């Protein structure tokens, strides 16, 4: 599917000219260029061939990394701009990059006797969170692949299995998003605290403590701290539903292979 966003209704809300530049070409049928924004407003794109590009605020490509030997990148975590994670779920491999997209280390989770891992996340202490679905444990490992701590079987609290599809570390809490259980919240030690309803079952983007997603053509911001929602803008629902970011006074999204930045 081509990334097409028709935003005629949104243009009426903006008074300044948008900044636009070309993102990587879509080069694999059925796969799209993906967009990510870190807390420093730095923009990353990943092409269907797993080429990662890091752009500055003017859209210039500053750094590039490409490796198509491990299959698709299923998780790309830029919440810590100094430690960027890429997880290849098909091969159970975690890659750790520095801010220049230089590969610092590679961890094969199979060698740690961790199997069928679906999601990982960067921890605030430069370690890595992993949810072991087989044993229903939230684990933390270091850059060398050594397990730093284990926690109790989550089934003892939920009375059934959890299957989180995304995980975020924010302000000394870890948030696991599960289609059945909503948001599962853990403390900085990986201990289960509580859960919170979360009605959005589709994909979302994340930046600086907020999730962004569309609901019936309306762009919603969800605050991780208290679970509140804020209506940001009315958008055309034909657009790419997985690639909107609102960073301070800017809206960043994809339109037909291009990254668009609008002031709001």
Order of helical and strand elements: HEEEEEEEEEEEEEHEEEEEEEEEEE
CA-based shape: globular
Number of strands: 24
Give the neighbour order of strands across the main sheet. Answer: 1-24-23-22
Helix/sheet category: mainly beta
Q: Work out the radius of gyration.
A: 18 Å
- SS summary, helix count: 2
Could you list the spans in which at least 5 consecutive residues all have pLDDT below 50?
Answer: 1-31
Give the secondary structure arrangement, pairings included.
Layout: H1 8-11, E1 19-22, E2 34-37, E3 43-46, E4 51-55, E5 61-66, E6 75-77, E7 84-88, E8 93-97, E9 103-108, E10 120-122, E11 128-132, E12 137-141, E13 147-149, H2 155-158, E14 166-170, E15 173-178, E16 182-187, E17 192-196, E18 205-207, E19 210-215, E20 218-223, E21 229-234, E22 244-247, E23 250-255, E24 258-263
Antiparallel strand pairs: 1-24, 2-3, 3-4, 4-5, 6-7, 7-8, 8-9, 10-11, 11-12, 12-13, 14-15, 15-16, 16-17, 18-19, 19-20, 20-21, 22-23, 23-24
Descriptive overview:
The protein is mainly beta and 264 residues long. It contains two helices and 24 strands. The protein is globular.
In short:
This protein is mainly β. The protein contains two helices and 24 strands.
């Amino acid at each position: 599917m081509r990334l097409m966003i028709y935003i005629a209704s949104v243009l009426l809300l903006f008074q300044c000219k948008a900044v636009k530049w070309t993102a990587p070409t879509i080069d694999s049928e059925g796969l799209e260029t993906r967009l990510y924004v870190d807390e420093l407003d730095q923009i990353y794109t990943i092409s269907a061939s797993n080429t990662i590009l890091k752009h500055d605020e003017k859209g210039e490509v500053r750094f590039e990394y490409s490796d198509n030997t491990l299959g698709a990148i299923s998780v790309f975590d830029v919440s810590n701009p100094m430690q960027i994670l890429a997880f290849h779920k098909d091969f159970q491999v975690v890659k750790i990059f520095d801010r220049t997209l230089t590969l610092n280390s590679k961890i094969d989770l199979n060698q740690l006797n961790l199997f069928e891992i679906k999601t990982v996340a960067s921890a605030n202490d430069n370690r890595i969170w992993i949810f072991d679905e087989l044993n229903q444990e939230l684990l933390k490992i270091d850059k060398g692949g050594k397990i730093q701590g284990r926690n109790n079987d989550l089934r003892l609290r939920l009375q059934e299995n959890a299957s989180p599809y995304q995980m975020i570390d924010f302000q000394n809490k870890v948030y696991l998003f599960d289609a059945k259980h909503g948001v599962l919240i853990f403390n900085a030690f990986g201990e289960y605290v509580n859960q919170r309803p979360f009605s959005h079952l589709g994909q979302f983007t994340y930046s600086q403590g907020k999730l962004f997603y569309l609901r019936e053509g309306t762009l919603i911001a969800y605050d991780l701290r208290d679970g509140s929602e804020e209506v940001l803008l009315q958008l055309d629902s034909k657009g790419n539903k997985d690639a909107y970011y609102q960073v301070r006074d800017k809206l960043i999204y994809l339109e037909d292979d291009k990254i668009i930045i609008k002031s709001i």
